Amino acid sequence: MALQTTTLRPGWRMKMTIIIVVLTAFGLWGLYDATVAYPARGERVARLMEYRYLVKAAGDPSRPRPIPARTVSIEDPSATLEQLRRRERDGTLGDGLDANRLQWLRALAVIGRLDPDQTTYTDDGGARDPDTRLQELAQEWANATGQPKLLHAYDILFQWVIFFVCIAVALWCVLLLLRTARVRYAYDPQTKTLVLPNGEKITPADLKEIDKRRWHKFYVTLVIRDDHPTLGGRRIELDLYRRSPIEDWVLEMEKEAFGTEEHPQETPSEDGDAQDGGEQRS
């Protein structure tokens, strides 16, 4: 009769597959948020803050005045942002134009767009003319249905963390599945001989004891007789949860070696739950 070999326990394999799929889905969701959804929302926030900034600079809406480019341009947005943040902390910022300038620069910084190309204007009537830009933004926000939710500095970073952590854990689970599937035990049902992954053989006559104290945690330990040529005196721990049908083999060897097949009160089940509510393993 041919040797039997272990396979992955269906319940554990399904559990790991579900975990991998869920983690991968969450990871890709985080990637989408970090690269598409949140930057797009951040762009809208930045345009809204720029619109409010230019409206403030234009003055009374009923009698708006032309906006000179020099009054609203920011040549060094990074340095200006730091200055405005210090004034905000010191309580000297107030609620004037500088407050709107701070909100705009902060929105640009969150999406990595704190660049002079985004914060300088020209008095040439073109796209970067303050009045032309204000009219463009006014048309956008006049028809807007609601305002975008503000982004915090850590929002995009947090989505990257979600992506890397979920994908890393999913890859670890894949490797665990592959490694477990590669390490196989074999069994000769005629001689009741267990063949370890390294080729060592254990017969019922080689067993001094079968330690089932951790059976409820899906482990069993084979205590080898001292006269075994290579494994004498060793304790061989077997995982009953991830591989099948190694549990049945152990019980057959026990019956052959000791004339009885003792079933502990807590026996592993296919779905990974012990009858006494014992510890579950992944």
Oligomeric assembly: single chain
Largest sheet, spatial ordering of strands? 1-3-4-5
Reported for the largest beta sheet, the result is:
4 strands, antiparallel
How large is the count of helical segments?
8
Portion in beta strands:
5-15%
Count of separate structural domains: 2
Give the C-alpha Rg. 34 Å
Please report the distance between the alpha carbons of the first and last residues. 34 Å
What does this structure look like?
There is one protein chain. With 282 residues, this protein is an alpha+beta fold. The chain has 2 domains: 145 residues, no CATH class; 73 residues, PH-domain like (Roll). The chain has 8 helices and 9 strands. A hairpin with a 7-residue loop joins strand 6 and strand 7. Helix 1 packs antiparallel against helix 4 and helix 3 packs across helix 4.
Task: Explain the layout of strands and helices.
Elements (H helix, E strand, L loop, with lengths): L3 E2 L1 E2 L1 H49 L10 H4 L4 H14 L6 H14 L5 H4 L10 H13 L12 H28 L3 E3 L4 E3 L5 E2 L4 E5 L7 E6 L10 E5 L3 E2 L1 H13 L24
Antiparallel strand pairs: 1-3, 2-9, 3-4, 4-5, 6-7, 7-8
What labels would you give this structure?
282 residues, alpha+beta, PH-domain like, 2 domains, four-stranded antiparallel beta sheet, 49% helix, rod-shaped, disordered C terminus
The gist of it:
This protein is of the alpha+beta class and 282 residues long. 49% of the residues lie in helices and 11% in strands. It has 2 domains: 12-156, no CATH class; 186-258, PH-domain like (Roll).
